[in-house]
Here is the input.
Amino acid sequence: MSDADSGRVRDRLDALAERALDMTVVERFALAVASTALALFIGLLVVAASGYDPVAFLGYIFEGSFGDSNATARTLKFGTLAILTGVAVAIAFRAGVFNIGVQGQFVVGGFVTVVTILWLAPLLPESAVGGVALMLLGTGAGVLAGGAYAAFPGVLKAYAGANEIITTIMLNFIAVGAVGYLVEGPFRGEGNRAPNTARLPEYVSLPQVVFDSPDFSLVGFGVALVVVVGVAVVMARTRFGYDMVTSGYQLSAAAYSGVDAKRTVVSTMTFSGMVAGVAGAVFAIMVQGYYSDPGGIATYGFDAIAVSLLAANNPLGVVPAGLLFGGLDSAGTHIGINSDVPVQLIDGIIGLVVLFVAIPELFRMAARRTGLGGESR
Amino acid sequence: MTPDAQPPAVELRGITKRFGDVVANDGVDFTLERGTVHALLGENGSGKTTLMSVLYGLYEKDAGTVVVDGEPREFDSPRDAMAAGVGMIHQHFQLVEPMTVLQNVVLGHEPTERGLVDESTARADVTDICRRYDFDVDDRLDEKVRDLDLGARQRVEIVKSLYRGAEVVVLDEPTAVLTPQEVDRLFDVMEELTAAGRSLIFITHKLDEALTAADHVTVLRDGEAIDTVDADATTEQELARMMVGREIVTERRPRSTDPGRPMLTVEDLHVVGDRGREQVRGVEFTVREGEILGIAGVQGNGQSELVEAITGLRSVASGTVTFDDRDITRMGRRGRIEAGVAYIPEDRQTEGLVQEYDLVKNALLGNQTVEPFVDGRFVDWASVRSHAESIVEEYDVQPPTADARAGSLSGGNQQKFIVGREIEHDPDVMVAAHPTRGVDIGSIEFIHDRLAALRDAGLAIVFVSSKLEEIRALSDRIAVMYEGEFVETVDPDGVTDEDLGLLMAGRRPDGLDAESDGSALEEEGVES
Amino acid sequence: MSLSSYASRTRYRLGGGIAFVVAVLLALVALDVPLRAILTVGFAERSLRAASPIALAAVGGLYAEKSGVFNIGLEGFMIFGAVTTAAMAFVLGGDSPGQPDLWVGIVGAVVFCTLLSVVFATLLVRFRGNQIVAGLAVWFIGLGFGPFIAVLLWGNRNSPGLVSVRQVSIPVLSEIPVLGPVLFETSPLVWLALLVAVAAWVVLFRTKYGYWLQAAGENPEALDTAGIDVARVRFAAVVFSGALAGLGGAVLFAHAGSFNGTGDTMVNGRGWIAIVAYLFGNYNPLGAAGAAVLFGGLENLQIQFQTAGIAFPNKLMDLFPYVAVIAVLTVWGSTRMPSAVGEPYESED
Here is the structure.
């Protein structure tokens, strides 16, 4: 290799670093704020153009995300799911594996959790202890299922060269369709008119700690934070994490250091899918209490990609990023109930936030043009 | 029109190019006469490619003038250079692999008829060029580029630049990827081109190639043009002196006194390369404790694949690798690291270091299973940090801080860090692939000292280099590799540079005998 | 990979597709399924209708990916195409728009989606956005704003019955048994889709623009040094993909006659199936169109099964394309994606 070669490698690495990694925390925060603000602004324009009152609409958004304890609980609920799925994505992206299939792993994990609990419930005492045991077992099963469902495309990538972006997207649809079929047919709860599984027993639920909300428990949020810290420790302080992250930065250097690239792809996917399984279990136990046709379940696993990106694929950064998305989701629910403005608008605005998060360069350029600290590097 | 009446094809005057604080070209003058081959000779990092990138519009110069065909020019992009008749053949071919040869040649300049690409015109034009310069690609126009070997791809690149009307073609280290036969063909092609009035700039760091193929030679060193000489009126020694800036003192280090037991044995090893071609064919050798086996050869003769097979980065087609009486042929990389095979990799930028990590994190690279850095599953970053700091201090890494990002270090300092890390592994076998490539002279001596000290401490060392002087200076035995085989294993003190050169070209000099245990010298007289 | 192995792999895949169809037919015969009741002329004609939106979006997506940009937002553009056509037809013709209103609506939808994809392409190519996330965002935006427009116009996520495209029957040709009614007495939009697929093939493999497109996706540097602006080629390809996906959505509406915005909207994954189709067709526009016909047939097989009295779960049948793609990627080696897909390209100047 000549000086020309190494120069090129250096250039490429520099460009990479410049673009993706060396954003400061402040810059990331600014990006999040700018993306949200711009998306909201466009949303408000649409609101005004459709003949509604944009000021009132804006009021609804704040009210709906943090306005009262109900709103806050709802924000934390959506935030919990965004954080968990966001961490799942962050693990994979950090290791350079593009797991777009978190939604599918989330669905499979949640469904298996419910089925496991329903199946084991008759075998265990109907008590709080039994409930905790069932939740733990169900979550364990969901985590395994999510991990296995992610390991599959990992194996296909490592040993058959199948592009994981495409296979995981396909597996999302397969998960949604297959689980949809199962809840509609074989696993439909007795006497259910809707295509849902039977309800989980009453005693299988997370305790209310602060908020009085049927589908949010601070315990669930706590689980999310514990997972975040756990993942952060694994990534930063363990050999496994070092091997994964090194593979993500420079596959050839990882191979040089003795990392088995193929096995790392599979274990990364498995780890990512397991966290998605936790998200699925929390959704099933805390939010739903049964499992419904996943075609109607929100696309947490897709939003998660934006969450992770916003957090620079850093597990700790996923917490604020997830709460931002939780707040927007929550505002959407609020507006759906209280406002004339069609609630679909909020979905569109979230889409815009996702879009802008994907284009940091846009804001960087704008900042440079206006002289707002664009040269901070 | 007489040639004398025409201005030079290219004239560079006082070209200066800086990258930050580094001056890559410092007021370089360079004149390419029409219809000649002009070699640009220099070691890696001497500024050859930078200078040509300025000419080709890839880099913006900081000072100086580019004159093409008598007219001052400002090239903002390769497109501009191309329009002025300057083409460049990079080491990375600019070819679209799934497209055919014909499509690649005409890309961007397609003749069209009624909206469609006029294939017959394109074919006629390209065939015409091939015939005129005696290229063999005209009967392969419908093959996809991905099915061609590197030599053929290079000829496609040349045809492409001719098709685009290049009068001046810059060839950036064109021989690096070629087999010797292909090199000969390339030189024939170059001759045809100049005979037809085209002018060529030939970037190389190989003395013999410069003398063989070029009419004029300009030597660059540290970004400055040292001198321009006629190829007929100079010698390799003179060029070498200009390149290095001093007489090459092949300072012979003391040889190994007492090799111990065999540490690494390779038997009938066959290894397949990336392109599906067998790159190592039946190599056999043994390295003993306290011995340096030098592997010499022109780049691309299977050294990389051999090294990767020894270190566990590439699987072996057949044959065995034995380490300290254990068969490690099927062992993975990590197993070999743990067993005690350290490796200074050929490519420090992509393999030896993670550019985005600081040196602390890089100190763990390869040490992931070594105590005390890792205790079970958890990394003890405090001990990794102190390890990194001790490497930085002991191996004189600049800047002297473990918090520096690896990518921000100069090549020499990166290499010193890697050498330090690998030595501190406390290995039994050290495989060093081109450990001084692109490294400043001070660091080279430092690295040589370290390797010699390791040998004296009883390690078995495999030392791969294409630089004859350092191979001779350091090795206890030299194996010359050519086309995937060891042509000969010789005693560095009993062989001349000429003989080594012949061996590296795959030819066995008369009177040279195989060397088995350092006794070639005595036997030589007997043989002849 | 050698030329021959490449060719044989394409053959494998084609063979695989045919083998699958034959196997299904044989299974049906073996199980004594009333084939005649399933493979009707109406079924063939409906399958082609169902295939056209998918084929159009697939050709668009294929162009974008060939140029090096993975346009994952096809689904979103299709939603915009469908809702815009419906909205324009409604605005022009009220509750009962006529054929001209519909056609203006289709053209309007294509124009609108072209504008949207100009913005999208700018963000991706000029501002080097993350293709996956931005593409998903387009889908979300479509899922949000599509039904939003419907609610604004009709007070409901679904439009009332508006207008569907009128069948065209070519005299004489339509008299040919079987082929006649399938090909010559059908929606003109089916012909349009076929025409687009053929034209896309010609442009891709026989014109200089096609060469540039392929080079932009495989080795942008080679194209750049040939004097062609990579960013412009990619920009054009992305805009084209958005416009064609929009046309696909418009065709979907024109065949259905009303807009449905519940759940995943009436597009319901067809944009994703379009990606599947061009992967299945190995980045060949004609192959993609063929795969679209296969998937269009699958979509209608359900109805045929019902009329023939066979029960087979809908949801599982819908999964076939996705499973098939994974099988293709795994069994027959990876589909060779253009090597520079997903990497923003920066010219050195």
